Amino acid sequence: MMERFPLPLKAELSIRGSQAQLLGGFVYQDPQHGAIQVPAGFKTDFASVKPLRTIAWTLLGASLAVGTIWPEAGACIGSAGYGALALYASVVGYGDAAATIHDRLYTTGELSRKSADSVFFNALCSSGVARWRAWLMWSGVRLGGHWRYRK
Q1: pLDDT averaged over the chain?
Q2: Quick one: 36 and 97 in the same domain?
Q3: 76-120, pLDDT tens digit by residue?
Q4: Is residue 115 part of a domain?
Q5: How many domains does the chain have?
Q6: Is residue 80 part of a domain?
Q7: Which long-range contacts (C-beta less than 8 Å, at least 24 apart) are formed by 72-77?
Q8: What is the pLDDT of residue 29?
Q9: What is the pLDDT of residues 16-72, one digit of tens each?
Q10: Which range marks the domain in which residue 24 is found?
Q11: Does residue 20 sit in the same domain as residue 82?
Q12: Percentage of the chain exceeding pLDDT 70
């Protein structure tokens, strides 16, 4: 079987830790689109799931505020907040290699957004991410990725 990631991912995190810069080139061999290369120096934020964490904390804070006046509504908002937090916890820290490839494809627009998202799913599975988790991450980029895709 062909190695899908022939080179190791080498990156240096920024001081704030929100971005990383590749120290060397990186390649993914996609079964449908062939070799996708990311040059040294490319900047990535890996998987962009921090907004989900922000949403979770915002909902949980709102549930406390609303719950003092209207307990049923506070409980409903809190449940949504815990759901968002659980979703965040299930995807954070996974798929850095796949996310780097995906960020490159979104930055360059060399593939359509749909194809870039397909490559992301394939790369997640190729890197050992569980299919259910890969599907969650793929769903996230399909739902919200249009804001970041550059054509």
Answers
A1: 89
A2: yes
A3: 999 999 998 898 888 788 899 999 999 999 999 999 999 999 999
A4: yes
A5: 2
A6: yes
A7: none
A8: 95
A9: 767 888 999 999 999 999 999 999 999 998 877 777 788 899 999 999 999 999 999
A10: 11-48+92-147
A11: no
A12: 96
Residue 130 has pLDDT above 60, yes or no: yes
Q: 3-state SS string over the chain? A: CCCCCCCCCCEEECCCCCCEEECCCEEEEECCCEEEEECCCCEECCCCCHHHHHHHHHHHHHHHHHHCCCHHHHHHHHHHHHHHHHHHHHHCCCCHHHHHHHHHHHHHCCCCHHHHHHHHHHHHHHCCCCHHHHHHHHHHHHHHHHHCCCC
Q: Is the pTM here over 0.85, yes or no? A: no
Asked if 134 and 121 sit in the same domain, the reply is yes
CA–CA separation, 135 and 3 (whole Å): 22
Q: Is 142 a member of any domain?
A: yes
pLDDT grade for 2, boundaries at 50, 70 and 90: low
For residues 142 and 98, state if they share a domain: yes
Record the tokens describing residue 55, joined without a space.
């949403």
> In this structure, is the dihedral angle defined by the CA atoms of residues 142, 143, 145 and 150, taken in order, positive or negative?
positive
Q: Is 6 a domain residue?
A: no
